[in-house]
Amino acid sequence: MLDSTTAVILAAGQGTRMKSALPKVLHAVAGRPLVHYPVRAALEAGCGEVVVVVGHGREQLEAYLAQAFGATGAGEGRVKTALQREQRGTGDAARAGLDGVRASSERVLLFYGDVPMLEARDVAAVAKALDDDPAAAIAMATCTTDEPFGYGRVIRDGVGQIVEIREQRDLKTDAERAIKEWNPGIYAASVSFLKEALASLSPNNAQGEYYLTDIVSFAAKRGQRVIGVPSRPEVMDGVNDRAQLALSDRAMCERLLAKHRVAGVTIRDGARVEDSVTIDKDAIVESFAVLRGRTRVGAGAIVDVGCVLTNAEIGEGVALKPYSVVTDAVVRARAQIGPFSHLRPESDVGEEAHIGNFVETKKTKLDRGAKANHLAYLGDGFVGEGANVGAGTIFCNYDGFQKHVTRIGKGAFIGSDSQLVAPVTIGDGAYVATGTTVTKDVPADALAIGRAKQENKEGYAARLRGRLEAMKEAAKKA
Ligand code: UD1
Ligand code: MG
To answer: Which of 260, 354, 374, 404 is flagged as catalytic?
Structure first.
């Protein structure tokens, strides 16, 4: 429906009020940069083309847009970028954006890259309002709330027509300051009108900038109509400083939790689930769990209190017990992890395998039903089906220069407090005695034992105690 509409999204500003080295629109809300959401809304609304105006920090922003949406300056895909050379205000940015709009586009939907909560329907409603009233020059969203501090206000004339948007800093009278109708910043207009209107702008305002909002008074002065489209204020908060970033982040996370709950996931209060995470139904996510990045959680899995998952793939029915940390790793169906386990990148825990408390894994694959239940480090290894790795086992994988591989065969048993000095292979069904330092391969079904022989000296402890006691008495007297 919006095929011949181009969305122009303004994202070139520095965001001075953020006080940050990072461009404002790259600050994250629910795990994605602010700018992600308006671009996605435009795509979901069906806009034939999306032009993102970049400027401040353009390399970083372009890199993100290329990776997330395949955007380029040339615009082979649906998303492209246009450059605003100097940040001279939103009107100037809109001009730069318009230069990037393809010739076949008839209409432009303009909005800001710092309004993360808005959705496709919010921008589509503004486009539709213009469609429904072809005589109007502009359709724009408006919101009405009790305290619109900081936003441009909608000034209407005696018969209720919109005649101007006036910025907070340019409000002159108490009557103007009392206006509760404000501008969330979504505008629809024809390309030809915008070209004319933007060419007429001048920086006569408190900030000495070219204001996009002045296209409204431009239309009104020529007797052209501006339609106000009543919009949802709860999704229109702009992010200009860190306090607003925190508010939008909270609102976005609440929206995401609600979405998962509707889809059949139990999520307790205080859990945090980022936008890019998927969770299948009947999973349970307990309080203070944090799910980030491309994490996927399978049906019926439990992510218990305080777990932190980043790009983790969690299979069906997995139990992640409290305070486990999983990063760039896979946990397959019905495995049990934790409490207090640390699965580092490229770990792959097989079906029904167990990783217990204070076990760290890195680049290690455990086959089905393998176990390492307590206090171990498994790095650069393979653990065969059903093998058991005892408490305190260490894969000595690093010689200070290179990493080496440890292989443990199917059904092997590694006794507690063993060190496996890689590269080393323990055969299927082999047995490593407790406290052994393994430096040579162990054949299948063999026993490796490498420790000093035990000797018992009868009565020695009692004699030793007597001697030590006498020494203590002698020292006191001296
Ligand atoms: C703007 C509106 C205000 C509205 C509010 C809604 C203007 C003049 N004011 O104010 O009426 O209530 O948004 O959130 O438009 N940008 C550029 N180039 C520039 C300057 C800004 O691309 O030279 C981009 C920014 O990156 C940002 C967006 O435009 O994403 C809005 O700029 P910002 O400075 O946040 O405007 P507000 O003060 O919020
Ligand atoms: Mg803003």
So the answer is: 374
pLDDT, mean of residues 205-211:
92
**Number of H helices and number of E strands within the chain?**
9, 38
Mean pLDDT of the chain: 97
Tokens 């006036």 belong to residue: 166
* Closest residue CA from atom 8 of ligand 1: 211
Contact yes or no for 238/244 (Cβ under 8 A): yes
CATH number at residue 224: 3.90.550.10
> Are 42 and 64 in a shared domain?
yes
Instruction: Note the pLDDT tens digit of each residue in 260-317.
Output: 999 999 999 999 999 999 999 999 999 999 999 999 999 999 999 999 999 999 999 9
- Omega before 423 within 30 of 0, i.e. cis: yes
Q: Are 366 and 352 in the same domain? A: no
Which residue, judged by its Cα, is nearest atom 6 of ligand 1?
Answer: 184
For residues 35 and 66, the answer to whether their CB atoms sit within 8 Å is: no
267 and 129 assigned to the same domain: no
CATH classification of the domain holding 327: 2.160.10.10
Asked whether residue 389 is assigned to any structural domain, the reply reads yes
Per the domain annotation, does 473 fall within a domain?
no
Q: Report the residue among 9, 112, 187, 240 best suited for mutation to probe ligand 1: largest number of ligand atoms under 8 A from its CB.
A: 112
Query: Quick one: pLDDT at residue 222?
Result: 96
* Residues 253 and 276: beta-carbon distance below 8 Å: no
Instruction: Please check the confidence at residue 1 and state whether its pLDDT lies above 80.
Output: no
439 assigned to some structural domain: yes
- Span 113-138, pLDDT tens digits: 999 999 999 999 999 999 999 899 99
Number of domains in the chain: 3
Separation of alpha carbons 74 and 81, rounded Å:
8
**Residue 374 among the catalytic residues:** yes
Q: Is the pTM of this model over 0.85?
A: yes
Please tell me whether residues 33 and 91 are part of one structural domain: yes
Q: Residue 179's domain spans which residues? A: 2-235
What pLDDT is stored for residue 206 in this prediction?
Answer: 85
Q: Which of 411, 326, 414 is nearest to 362 (CA)?
A: 326
One domain, residues 104 and 211: yes
Pocket (CB within 6 angstroms of ligand 1): 10-13, 25, 53, 55, 84, 87-90, 92-93, 112-115, 151-152, 165, 167, 182-185, 211-213, 238, 240
> How many angstroms is it from 365 CA to the middle of ligand 1?
50
Residue at 243 is within a domain: no
Confidence of residue 74 (pLDDT cuts 50, 70, 90): confident
